[in-house]
Amino acid sequence: MTRLSVPKTYKLAIGGAFPRSESGRTYEVLAADGGFLANAAKASRKDARDAVVAARSAFAKWSGATAYNRGQVIYRIAELLEGRRAQFIDEISRTEGVSAAEASAQVDLAIDVWVWYAGWADKYAQVAGNANPVSGPYFNLSVPEPTGVVAAVAPQGVTGGSLLGIVSVVAPIILTGNTVVVVADETAPLSAISLAEVLATSDVPGGVVNTLTGSPAEIMPWLAAHADVNALDLAGAGSLDGSSGASWVDLQLAAAETLKRVLAPVAGVPRPALERISAFVETKTVWHTKSML
Amino acid sequence: MTITQPAGLAPAERAVRLLGADLTETALRRHLEGLSGVDAVGLEQRAAGLATRSIKTSSKAWALDTIIRTCDLTTLEGADTPGKVRSLVAKAVTPDASDPTTPSVAAVCVYGDMVPYAVEALGSRHGDPEKGLVSVAAVATAFPSGRASLAVKLADTRDAVAAGADEIDMVIDRGAFLSGNYGLVFDQIVAVKEACRRADGSSAHLKVILETGELQTYDNVRRASWLSILAGADFIKTSTGKVSPAATLPVTLLMLEVIRDWHRLTGEKVGMKPAGGIRASKDAVRYLVTVAETVGEEWLTPHLWRFGASSLVNDVLLQRQKMRTGHYSGPDYVTVD
Questions:
Q1: Closest residue in A to B331 (Cα–Cα)
Q2: A101-150 residue pLDDT tens
Q3: What is the tens place of the pLDDT at every residue in B168-179?
Q4: Does B237 participate in catalysis according to the annotation?
Q5: Does A280 touch chain B (CB under 8 A)?
Q6: ipTM of the complex, rounded to two decimals
Q7: CA distance A176 to chain B (A)
Q8: CB contact under 8 A, A225 and B329
Q9: Residues A48, A181: contact at Cβ < 8 Å?
Q10: Domains of chain B, residue spans
């Protein structure tokens, strides 16, 4: 007697929970050879709105944690990703149609990206901040602080990027204490949702990373215009279709209405870089007297 | 400034009309305990059913404005200051400075000692909410516990009325009610109602807070609602906001049913005010649906329906901004308090 398979339901990740889309919509995720792979939730603008609320309420605790603590939490993501390696290799090779060795190499890279960024958590402030010399008995300190809620588009349809792409976008954003609403790769969202499951079990507080699957062209205009989103990472938005008013230039125009920081699209998967960290921090400069005299 | 409706009742007039001239505690008890029991499952199912209605576009716009028009903007903290009351009043008059079409709220609700500051800050905008002005509501009678002697409660009430309060939110003695001492609760409401009279013969509106979170059962809520109405309440109100659970949809529905029954019996319209725990516009719209379906849309005016809330208005303003601008707004675009 053959056993019935128990396929996984791929849902959204909002505020530490895994809800279906509020709209009830799903779409088919296809393998590289065109065969059926899974049904994924197709997020609506209201899911995006809920995700922003979750990200906003998670911000105070996550940005209030010490940099050292955030580094440890992010390192732990790498540890847990290592433990679920087989699942990711399976999903990547089925989605992208690559060999197990190539998929394994991508998982390695993704883990290394987490570790690389984890190391920066308690060090980037020394690089991005400064003790400014001033003519008076004062300390004058410039300190980078997290921007707030960031909306991001993961790289879309990049071979070798279905896991690495979203990791390379999310890690530098949350490292400094930002919270993120990320729209996963539309055609290859499975690794993104499995990554959300890793995050949910790795001491990352609920709501710090909110993952939406579906059409970035549909969701991103709402996030770009949302007044409670502080910054946009358009990493994967370069390929979005401009005819529906969702090209990355349109998104940038909408973001300008509420003075958001915007990071422009990149081709392929963003390389790990300090610039991705400093793109989503604000420099706060404070004066302190040097003594009580 | 006087609110003329309804005309001041004689003491215990409603109870005398319903229960007879020789009003005794026994007659009161017989009436209250003779009320039919509440079908709790049916009540909650009805409330859950009403909560599923989808209110969109122009109906939603009307509902959002109605929520603001019927809201008692509230600050009831030990840390209240005249300055905080003044900023509350500014928000009550102009809830959204970025949109002058936003209506004013119905009233500001403060502690008795803050009434003079609220009256002074309102100035010419102080008046009947039906005319677009803002009333001053004061909590009195040793709010929120109600644990003080009757003399203190009456002095508290007279003080607030003399300072210019248009509405008095009193709490019932839950201890006495739960011990079955209905007569005591009744007499206290009648006495406070009398203390609401002004020298010129007009009267401040009396809202009676049942504190349903402490009444344990739906049967008790129904009895307390009847008791308050019989004793002369102009409004019945669910909660102080200091006890959890505060207002819930089933409790509000139950109290509205008592108001509806009273209206059918006598033709008098008694007001209703859920208070505490209503923070999202979506929840508030469900209350509006419940009112319209239970007592009718004519109740959705500031004289017969109020929300007691502090943070609800901000959420409604965010929804209004979303409808006006077409994109989602955020807490940076409304006041902090």
A1: A228
A2: 999 999 999 999 999 999 999 999 999 999 999 999 999 999 999 999 99
A3: 999 999 999 999
A4: yes
A5: no
A6: 0.88
A7: 22
A8: no
A9: yes
A10: 17-323
